[in-house]
Each structure stands twice: as structure tokens, then as C-alpha cells.
Design a protein that fits this description.
- By secondary structure, this protein is α/β, with parallel strands linked by helices.
- It is built from 9 helices and 23 strands.
- The two termini are 35 Å apart.
């Protein structure tokens, strides 16, 4: 007997990666994972509005029960699924502000207010500027959801305890990166993470690293359009330049240009890309909720790729700070001079077995 099931796709999203399938539960604000072997049974939902389930194994029954209990699928036919629709962004989601010297904080504060920015990365070597800026953000009603601070000064003025105190007072700051001449470590609780690095730490790599943000607006943008850089603004006070998304709403682009002109900042429109077009990223289960500041290169053969490796390895499902993390090369993933990706499946399977069994 055939049983019909349907997906709840308005608020629950499934994304297949190389190693596992991600479930994004936007309604309840959580994520789950299921094996790709389970998702394979359901893949036809991508092109149809329901699917038929035939004979299944006991292992599959366990996952089926989990999906039904959490209402990720329902045991009935749905004759209509609301399609995802992309609208050119009328606000800035991702804002990077670089400022190595003491500056007036009026520029970032005005931008945060004017463009309803949600995610804010500050890179500076001035503790005075950071304190002034953060204090003003505290006293302003913002649409901000997250602040990341990168403190570039290699002096020992900031202690871990003083950083903790700063983060305890500012619930929007979720990540803080700084120098520590003694050791590299991660200090994490249920609200924020502090990363300390020795002098060799490359802040440029950090500022360009992608960010995983579980936001439905970002998912729709990345899934249905060329999402990377589609809602992005970067201002660099060190060289008086700015980069912004080329596919923003025309009205907001005009506002940005006018604003940049007032501060005599040169501007560079940034072309948007799809994660599904980029080597390695196309195998990542987080690709549709990734805000990436890296600009991809294009090979002579037309392949899109990144020069610097991401902090997440989708082939073993590990972030760089997690136990058992390995680089792509050590995982059996090689990229040749033409930027073509080759997977040593035997080596990768052995590594995944060692990590996950």
C-alpha cells in the first residue's frame, strides 16, 4: 500500500549537501540533520508537490517517525505549495565596516539606522572607536540581529575578562576576535564566542570568511536569485572605498551612492553569484544560508572558485574549531591548476567513518 506525504515548505526547508541533508526549521528557529540516504527517497519533491513512499527499511522508519513527529512532513496530500519568490532587497543585511584609526562613529551609526542593517562586522585597531561605537549602538533602536567585533590591536590592553564584561553588557555582540600573545583559543557560552589568536593570525582572512545565518530572507535570496552580495555593503575608511550589491533595489542603490558621495568614498558595485555555481560551495548543505564576503575568481574554463579555503569542510561536516576537523586536502579533496575538484572517495569515506562511527 502506498502512503502519500507532503513537505511543509513554507517554514521548513531541506538542503542536501555532500555529507548530509540540512533541515532548516524557520518557524521554531532550529536546525536538524538527516542522512542523504534518507533524503534520496524524498528528492522528487523538488519537482512535484507530493511523493509516494514504498517499502522502507527499519532505519528509514526511524527517520520517518522523527520527520512526522516534528511536522517536517505531513501524512496527507497538499495540492499547492507556495513558491519561493525573490524581491530585490530594499535593505542592507550584511555590513562590513573597516576602520583602523580613531574615527567619528557617525558614519556606521547613520548607515545602521538608514538601511535597517541586520548583521554588522566591525574591524578596527582602536579600542576608543569600538567603545564609542558600541555605546551609541546600545542607545539606538536598531534592526540589528548580530554584531561581530575584530580587534586588530596587538597590545595587551584588552584582557579576556574585560572582553567578557563588554559582551555581557551588549547582547547583540555574538563573536569577538582579538590577539593573545600566549595562545590561540576559543571561549564559548550559549550566547557568544571569543576567539583569541597569536600574532600570526590573518585578519584579512577572517573579514572575508562566510557567515552562516539561519534567516528565511537570506535563504529565499540565495535559493531563488544570485544571492551572494545581493544585500551587502562594505566601507573601508583606511582607503576611503566602498563595495555594495549590484542587484539591490534601485531606490536603495541611489540612496547608497548619494550617501557615499557625501563622505567622498569611491564605490565599486559587486556582481552577485549563486553558491550552486561555485566549486566546493555547491556541495555544502549551508550554501543557501551563507553570507559570503569572499569574491570568487573565474578560471579560463569558466569555473568559479575561491582563493582561500572556507572555515567549514562540507565533506566531513566539520568547522575549523571542532574536534576532528581536517582541511580539504587532508580529507582527500584536491583542486588542480584548472581549479577542478577531485574527490578521493576511498580516503574520504575512511575519514568520515573514523569521525562519525
Amino acid at each position: 500500500m502506498k502512503t502519500k506525504y507532503s513537505f511543509i515548505t513554507d517554514n521548513v526547508i531541506f538542503t542536501r549537501g555532500y555529507n548530509r541533508t540540512l533541515i532548516l526549521d524557520f518557524y521554531r528557529g532550529k536546525i536538524e540533520f538527516i542522512p542523504n540516504s534518507v533524503w534520496t527517497v524524498f528528492e522528487e519533491i523538488e519537482n512535484q508537490q507530493s511523493f509516494n513512499l514504498h517499502a522502507v527499511s527499519n532505519d528509514f522508519d526511524e527517520y520517518l517517525s522523527f520527520l512526522l513527529e516534528n511536522e517536517y512532513i505531513i501524512e496527507e496530500f497538499r495540492d499547492h505549495i507556495k513558491p519561493l519568490e525573490f524581491i530585490s532587497p530594499s535593505s542592507i543585511h550584511d555590513f562590513l565596516f573597516i576602520c583602523d584609526k580613531k574615527q567619528n562613529s557617525v558614519i556606521p551609526i547613520q548607515l545602521l539606522e538608514k538601511f535597517h542593517i541586520k548583521d554588522f562586522l566591525i574591524i578596527s585597531d582602536s579600542s576608543e572607536f569600538l567603545n564609542e561605537l558600541i555605546a551609541q549602538i546600545e542607545n539606538t533602536n536598531q534592526s540589528l540581529k548580530n554584531i561581530t567585533v575584530v580587534y586588530k590591536n596587538n597590545s595587551n590592553k584588552l584582557t579576556v575578562e574585560s572582553i567578557k564584561s563588554l559582551l555581557d553588557r551588549n547582547p547583540l555582540i555574538h563573536e569577538f576576535y582579538c590577539f593573545n600573545h600566549n595562545k590561540t583559543e576559543e571561549i564559548t557560552n550559549n550566547r557568544y564566542s571569543i576567539f583569541t589568536f597569536e600574532d600570526k593570525f590573518n585578519f584579512k582572512d577572517l573579514s572575508s570568511q562566510p557567515r552562516i545565518i539561519f534567516d528565511q530572507e537570506i535563504y529565499v535570496r540565495n535559493k531563488t536569485a544570485k544571492g551572494i552580495y545581493s544585500s551587502y555593503l562594505e566601507i573601508n575608511m583606511n582607503n576611503m572605498s566602498a563595495r555594495y550589491s549590484s542587484n539591490l533595489d534601485e531606490e536603495i542603490k541611489l540612496q547608497i551612492l548619494e550617501y557615499l558621495k557625501n563622505f567622498k568614498l569611491s564605490n565599486i558595485p559587486t556582481t552577485s553569484f549563486e553558491k550552486d555555481e561555485i566549486q566546493i560551495c555547491q556541495d555544502c548543505e549551508f550554501r543557501y544560508v551563507c553570507c559570503d564576503r569572499r569574491i570568487p575568481e573565474k578560471s579560463k574554463e569558466g569555473l568559479l572558485y575561491y582563493q582561500n579555503e572556507c572555515e567549514y569542510n562540507p565533506y566531513i561536516s566539520k568547522f575549523f574549531y571542532e574536534k576532528d576537523y581536517s582541511t580539504l586536502e587532508k580529507s582527500g579533496i584536491t583542486i588542480n591548476s584548472l581549479h577542478e575538484v577531485t574527490i578521493d572517495k576511498s580516503k574520504l569515506d575512511k575519514l568520515n567513518h573514523k569521525i562519525w562511527q
